[in-house]
Amino acid sequence: MADYLRMNSDELKKEFSSVKAKYDELLSLKLSLDMSRGKPNFDNMDLCDDALCAVNREKGFKDLSGTDCRNYGGMDGIAELKSLFGEVLGVPAEQVIVGGNSSLNMMFDTVAQGMTHGFGAGPWGLQKNIKFLCPAPGYDRHFGITEHFGFELIPVYMTAEGPDMDAVEELVKDETVKGIWCVPKYSNPEGMTYSDNVVRRMAALKPAACDFRIFWDNAYAVHDLYDEGDCLLNIYDECLKNGNEDLVFMFTSTSKITFPGAGVAAQAASPNNLKMLKNRIKYQTIGPDKVNQLRHARFLPDMAALKLQMKKHAEILRPKFESVLSELNNQLGDKNIASWSKPRGGYFISLYVYEGTAKRVCELCSKAGMVLTPAGAPFPYGKDPKDSNIRIAPSYPSVEEIKKAAELLCIAVRYAALEKLL
Amino acid sequence: MADYLRMNSDELKKEFSSVKAKYDELLSLKLSLDMSRGKPNFDNMDLCDDALCAVNREKGFKDLSGTDCRNYGGMDGIAELKSLFGEVLGVPAEQVIVGGNSSLNMMFDTVAQGMTHGFGAGPWGLQKNIKFLCPAPGYDRHFGITEHFGFELIPVYMTAEGPDMDAVEELVKDETVKGIWCVPKYSNPEGMTYSDNVVRRMAALKPAACDFRIFWDNAYAVHDLYDEGDCLLNIYDECLKNGNEDLVFMFTSTSKITFPGAGVAAQAASPNNLKMLKNRIKYQTIGPDKVNQLRHARFLPDMAALKLQMKKHAEILRPKFESVLSELNNQLGDKNIASWSKPRGGYFISLYVYEGTAKRVCELCSKAGMVLTPAGAPFPYGKDPKDSNIRIAPSYPSVEEIKKAAELLCIAVRYAALEKLL
Predict the structure, then answer these.
(1) Is A275 left (phi over 0), alpha (psi -120 to 50) or beta?
(2) Which of A38, A77, A51, A118 is nearest to A268 (CA)?
(3) Residue ranges of E strands in A194-305
């Protein structure tokens, strides 16, 4: 009988001493493993090295419009990438702004713009008790931005279909609620994709605040691990059907397509929102790094090239995910102390350990040389009310390391659960 | 007798008909010239093409610390460029933040941070009647940023030594005055360098507002046209002597060293200010484009390499400046209707035409196919009280075009003055 919850005290003690022996053995290996952040590995980045050489004297400096990309100008990016990101985000090219190397930076700037200039109802910074909805578990850096700007963070729990829309629909009746963070496809950290129903209800929201905005961070739009990827409904089309096109800001980037630190980011919005965004950007910069944009346009000339690139990434990433999932299944499948997501894309696996032990699991792993995202990080204010969720990022270590890391993680999960049960 | 102010009516009419004939001749050439912005020419950018190939598979992706620059991280930039920009700005490397492609963006973000989080005295955005000092003529994009954020722009007139410090010292007694824009070396558009005395008085300011900051945009720090360049006193050293090190934010970039749109920008500040800046940046981004930083570090490994590069730029720019200055001297030197700066570096010549005719001069030039910076642009709210200043940017056209452009400009200056006098 492997179900820990059905074991008697003697059985638990015996199991604990066996698990502890294995843990001590792993401890003695003095491992050094990092599963803390969704960082691509060298292998993935090496797939894109040709991009670095795509702009030089021989290949020329001009984009298709004939503009020399080395000089100033072109506040909203080059046409080639507007088209490509438009296809990725499912909006017309002219509704896209192509920026620098970081979509997080574009999100931060958009929230900052809300604070100082607002989105049609005066600056958020001059309004009282402003709040932001945070589907949890979610992306810690999203929550960090709105916390930095003084929003109260309101957790909305994730269901199997996406954020709990009953809760969202209720919460947006409060006009101090100004927005919601979403990672709609292969969500961080759940690895799940919002259902059509969730996207439709999201696009149909009628918030009390006219300056409420959905921050739709489609970071993993094309990041399938398998040929048959998840399908995400086009939120902008749904917004249009509801006369709600100003409701959503969309974001994406090539951080996990080309280079995490040296990719290209983009945002898209309705014509009305774009006008507001550009009225900031025209003061903020004379233009983004168009040379890096041109490198990307030449390396990824169309969606077919982009998809081919993602297939190559998937070949590297898939065995890592499968390795973790297989170990989780082998060690924890029958223990009744843990559950986990089985993503078909993205960068994360979300693991739910025995309640009240997530912090302890991270501590045990850390002692044995493995860095995990701190327990609680995917929740507003870093507080997981059940102390149960752990975000696993299998992308950075090698497959060999991943196997060791998953073994250690599972042992730690069992160790902590047994401590608690005893 | 060439002095227009001493001519009688008949002489003026005769001169006007001769000038008009020349203008009509130029008009018939259907010129297409651009002296509107400080944009480097292709020749200048071509000098830097090797930078584009400085990071690739063969040359490697690691900076001196061993970090793979393609991945996430390194919020404040790579060490090599902190050192280089530290030397350019005259501060220790650890006080430098190396960013993206635009120092204007760093300035905008710093003002935005003042608005939402302030610099030790609460957010500027929550304070009433905030004001910003704008040495005029100055850089229109500086003024634009503070206008965008709702500051009242207070003009401070430029003297031969820099901003009128008597006025500045008086104005900062008002605690609603929060900062001043400065381009201290080869200033935009005057092309002059602040005297030691001005820098010392600037560094010794004791503003009523403890959150007052000098925005010291040292955009042309190394941009000499001649072997003997202007010397700018180190403001940070002077601030230190006065216990005033939190008074100043310093900025610079390689926009006019490598590529205008694809260079690297940096800012520097006191340890106390740095702490505040980094507390924003850690939420704003996971890091700048370190690959582009590494390209720059390899292309410009030290100050000697940087200075050599600037000498090459000067060889291209110097004849353009001299061409304009020579034409100004030939056509306008004895007319008593115009004066102009004779910069030894930077990107601009500032021309003062007969009062009340600057707009008309731009209009005449525009009709004949030449774009100039709109008259008034270098003044707060775009309003030159004397309608006399014109910013000349000789960098972008070829030497051949420059000669034609200067000829047309001088004819237009004479044309407009004669219209006014008649």
Answers:
(1) alpha
(2) A77
(3) 213-217, 248-253, 265-268
| Record: contact A125-B116, CB cut-off 8 A | yes
Residues A286, B40: C-beta atoms closer than 8 Å: no
Q: What CA–CA distance (Å, rounded) separates B387 from B377?
A: 10
Contacts of residue A205, defined as CB under 8 A and 6 or more positions apart, other chains included, come to A168, A169, A172, A212, A214, A244, A247
CB contact under 8 A, A290 and B102: no
Question: C-alpha dihedral over B346, B352, B353, B354, to 10 degrees?
Answer: 180
pLDDT-based confidence at B144, cuts 50/70/90?
very high
Distance from CA of B382 to the nearest CA of A (A): 15
Q: Which of residues 337-396 of B touch A (CB under 8 A)?
A: none
Q: pTM above 0.95?
A: yes
CA dihedral A405, A411, A416, A420 (to 10 degrees): 160
Q: Which of A113, A289, A290, A295 to mutate to test the interface with B (most CBs of B within 10 A)?
A: A289
pLDDT score of B38: 87
B69 vs A contacts (CB less than 8 Å): 261-262
Counting Cβ atoms within 10 Å, is residue B359 exposed (0-12), middle (13-18) or buried (19+)? Answer: middle
Neighbours of B195 (CB within 10 A): 17
Tell me, what's the pLDDT at A1?
Answer: 59
- Determine, for residues B71 and A123 on separate chains, whether the beta-carbon distance falls below 8 Å: no
> Smallest CA–CA separation between B61 and chain A, in Å?
10
Task: Determine the Cα–Cα distance for residues B87 and A109; give it in Å rounded to an integer.
Answer: 30
* Min distance B146 CA to chain A CA atoms (Å): 9
Measured distance CA(A372)–CA(B15) in Å, rounded: 82
CB atoms < 10 A from the CB of B305, how many?
A: 13
Kindly provide the ipTM of the predicted complex, given to two decimals: 0.96
